[in-house]
């Protein structure tokens, strides 16, 4: 069993134990994912590069960061589960697609979008 499956089952059990699946329509799961991503962004809002460097070495701040990353990933796991998407396969496929969009010889050291290469 992959780590994705292990954690997906834990999140689904957490949801089902609370009878929350009735609220978990794909649209609402996607919305929740974006809301948690916004909470992640909020941790960085208005901070200088130096302040971010300090933040990621502070245990209290990194716990908040870890919490928001887990919130985002949790919604991804649940949404993928409900839409019957194998995240391991999806990641492999997308990495292959990105490799074609951004061949090393054209993209190495460049921040240009693939349409500009
Ligand atoms: Mg959160």
Give the distance, in angstroms, between the N- and C-terminal Cα atoms: 39 Å
Low-confidence stretches: none
Report the biggest beta sheet as strand number plus sense, adding barrel if it closes.
none
Q: What's the CATH architecture name?
A: Orthogonal Bundle
- What integer is the average pLDDT? 95
Write out the distinct hetero groups bound to the structure: magnesium ion
- As for the number of domains, it is 1
Fraction of residues in H or I helices? over 70%
Broad CATH class: Mainly Alpha
Structure summary, number of beta strands: 0
Write the layout of secondary structure elements.
Blueprint (H helix, E strand, L loop, with lengths): L2 H15 L8 H17 L6 H7 L3 H24 L4 H15 L2 H4 L10
Bound molecules: magnesium ion.
Q: What do you see in this structure?
A:
It is a single chain. The protein has 117 residues and is mostly helical. The protein has a single domain, classed as Orthogonal Bundle (Helix Hairpins). The chain contains 6 helices and no strands. The chain has helices spanning 3-17, 26-42, 49-55, 59-82, 87-101, 104-107. It is globular. Bound molecules: magnesium ion. Residues 36, 39, 68, 71 line the site of magnesium ion.
């Amino acid at each position: 069993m992959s780590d994705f499956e292990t954690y997906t089952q834990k999140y689904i059990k957490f949801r089902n134990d609370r009878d929350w699946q009735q609220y978990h329509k794909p649209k609402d799961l996607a919305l929740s994912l974006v809301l948690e991503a916004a909470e992640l962004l909020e941790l960085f809002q208005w901070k200088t590069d130096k302040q971010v460097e300090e933040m990621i070495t502070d245990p209290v701040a990194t716990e908040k960061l870890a919490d928001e990353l887990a919130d985002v990933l949790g919604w991804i796991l649940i949404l993928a589960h409900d839409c019957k998407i194998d995240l391991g396969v999806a990641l492999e496929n997308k990495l292959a697609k990105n490799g074609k969009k951004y061949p090393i010889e054209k993209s190495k050291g460049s921040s240009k979008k693939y349409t500009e290469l």
